[in-house]
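Why does residue order matter? Because the sequence determines the fold. Keep that principle in mind as you read this record.
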Amino acid sequence: MELWQLRHFVTVARAQSFGKAAVAMDISRFELARAINELEEQIGFQLLYTANNVARLTERGSAFLDAAENLIAHADAVESLAADLPQARGSTVFTVARATEAGVDVARRLLLRFRAAHSDVLLLERPMSTVDCVQALREGSSDMAVVGLPADLDGMISVRRIGAAEFGLAWRADRFTPAVALLLSWIDDFVAGQMQDGHLT
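Structure:
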């Protein structure tokens, strides 16, 4: 179970509509329904049912909604706190939006290895869809994003493919910060070393 799945569920529950929730999150209704189905499979019970085109909570779904909203609130509070504390220590806080459909396992391992190599950088991940990643870059709420390729980008956003993977690192061209440069340089060096072995893991 991941935070992005809980956010999807909460959005549907609040909107009482898969269609309205999908529009609000700028994803397809099919993708949203699949995310809810996967969440239900993971927890072992039904959260929602549709009656007269209205998404309604089951009894257990209603209880789960309270827990999900609390978890999201705590996660947001922790992220906010984490963003404040390292600055007092002179550390760099770096937010990366990570597309959930873009080479998730490989991208996750790369970011974990970067964290291990740079303890002075607090890298915060924000799992979401590629569309939401691009929007996060445009509005400046993320410093960088891992996006699936090809992605619907414009001149405001630059992207670099990671090796031969079906994803790349994207950033706002007008916000090429030292932290962005550091992550790009580190990943370039890491991927080059991996490619000597003929694969990226």
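Residues 59-88 form the longest helix (30 residues).
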